[in-house]
Amino acid sequence: MTTVQKNHRMFEQVLHQIREYITSCNLVAGDKLMTERELASFLQVSRSSVREALRILEMFDVIHSKPGEGTVLKTPHIPKILTNMLPFFTIPTETSVELLESRKVLEGGIAKLAAKRRKDADIRLMQGVMERMVAAADLENMIQADIDFHLFLAKAAYNNTLSDILILVSDLVTPNLYTVRVQTQMISGANAEFTRQHQAILQAIIDKDGRRAAEEMERHIDYTIQLIKSLDPTPNDG
């Protein structure tokens, strides 16, 4: 196993190295990983970077941390699962941006319609999601609240065709949401800004202001695009 390359995204590199460690040692469910301190020393990275990588693996039910016992592999066939899962975290920047641009076009229109057509029940659902988003103490709950907000927003538009389109692309939108939130969570103030932006979208919908709802949604996605671009270690040739 090689040490982390400093010019790559830290959490991606740590995840890749943990995968190599698991596969090279032929570890199976129930086996223990190195301790957090040992992994940090071996990879020559901070313990916080290792802790974040382990948190992501635990979120996907790949490992389980037992107090006093260490971190153990939880799911059978770990190498196969990690092989399928890790590309999810390494979506090329240009692909992420294209997905976000597609969402901007689609969800801006959805927000505009939702502002005009939403019912009180829809508002209650989205307000409940916002409460969860604000109260979320971990990344998994924060991401799920984000996804639910966009799904409830689409429902509030009451347009079957748009809903069908969103369902067709949901296999792309949902991983995109996960990828964005995983990649940007370490940026100072990003999570608080995401929450504020969702609240602004919701308020426009409560006010039945379609134009403002669309603008707030587009502003939210433009902000996300800029964050994703800022994380790209590849020099910009354009």
TrEMBL record:
The keyword Chloroplast does not apply. This is DNA-binding transcriptional repressor LldR. The keyword Plastid does not apply. It comes from Paenibacillus naphthalenovorans. PANTHER family: TRANSCRIPTIONAL REGULATOR, GNTR FAMILY, UXU OPERON TRANSCRIPTIONAL REGULATOR. Pfam families: FCD (PF07729), GntR (PF00392). Keywords: DNA-binding, Transcription, Transcription regulation. SMART domains: FCD, HTH_GNTR. Signal peptide: none annotated. InterPro entries: GntR_C, TF_FadR/GntR_C, Tscrpt_reg_HTH_GntR, WH-like_DNA-bd_sf, WH_DNA-bd_sf. GO terms for molecular function: DNA binding; DNA-binding transcription factor activity. It comes from the Bacteria.
